[in-house]
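Entry
Fold in token form

___
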Amino acid sequence: MTRTRAHHSIRTVRTLVAAALLAPLVAACTADPAPSAAGGAGTGTGTGKGAPAADNEGPVTVKVTPTGKQAEAGQPVTVTATGGRLTSVTVTDTKGGDLPGRAAPDGLTWTSARKAAPGTTYAVTTQTRTRGGTSSTHRAFFTTTAAAQVNKVDWRPGTGTTVGVAQPVSLVFDHPVKNRAEVEKQLKVTTSNPTEGSWGWMRDYSGKDRVDWRPKDYWKPGTKVTVTAELNGTASSDDRWFVRDYTTTFTVGPQQIVKVDLDTHRLTLLRDGRTVRRIPVSGGTPGGDKRSWRGTAVLMAKEGTINMNSETVGLGNAYDKDVAYSMRLTWSGMYAHAAPWNARYFGNSNQSSGCIGMSNADASWFYAQVRPGDPFEITGKDTKGVVAPNNGFGQWNMSWPAWQATSALH
């Protein structure tokens, strides 16, 4: 049986007060019809009175907050009953979505687990009961103000993909995120087997804010992962909001680790701990800006044949050519690729402009074997440093405690 581990709890959509606290319903109640989209929505006062009570009881009064046509977004919905108890509360938007929540043990209040989203009309349907057993249905409506500015998210990996064992979850935001802790609380990672991991914040190589989720160790092959960002209704800063949720699912493929020894000029592909093939390569030229990076880089994308221009990476007019079997390792421009012009150096000298070059035949074979998310563990004495966490997926070069410390909730 598959074990599923959720890294944050998920509330139920419809909340009922525990049966031990409430007497059974004795009569069905009919709710008032929903207002028309043109004029009725948002006109409710937030307070409703139920059916006539017994002679010795007054009617149940229900108060809903927020209320009105210009309600503040980003706040939880609260429902309070006076003169009776809540037996159920349902909060629904105009698109048919429900806002989950939970009632207090005494049945007098209910609070949504999520916040009201900007520019949304909500219908709140509440059922109550007096101590004498009289049941009532109440309806209220409110509309939140629209977001003045919206923040959007770019996801990696894509949904339905199969990735390597070093692939992190990565979210890059269109605009700065000041409320990092609040945003991180809305992010959930669910795995098919126990997997310890942590979110960590950084400035992406593009200059934008970014948050990644990395396992403590490489993923276990076959792990199925679901990532949900319940961001709708969350403010990323004082003047920007998220107005939708995001989700992605992916599967971890076989364990493949690429070891690159720049001192012996060899690349080794390991699959499930066994050597598949060793390939002679040539890395970055020693002694200057053309040196390669060391540490763990993660295959970001297989880009095929692309044009590489040295001016884009600050190396002047050193090269401008189409390169086959290009496999991106960093945002700064380090690739593994075919480099037939360097054939005489494969296996004996590092003479590239920073990339890991190999023959056309070896590159064709290797390109077909690897997938995004496979780690490249690169060693060598003369390099220009360790791959930074934001330069692609270089967070594997941080210790686990150091990575955990980058979480806004640490």
In short: The two ends are 33 Å apart (CA to CA). Confidence is low (pLDDT under 50) at residues 1-49.
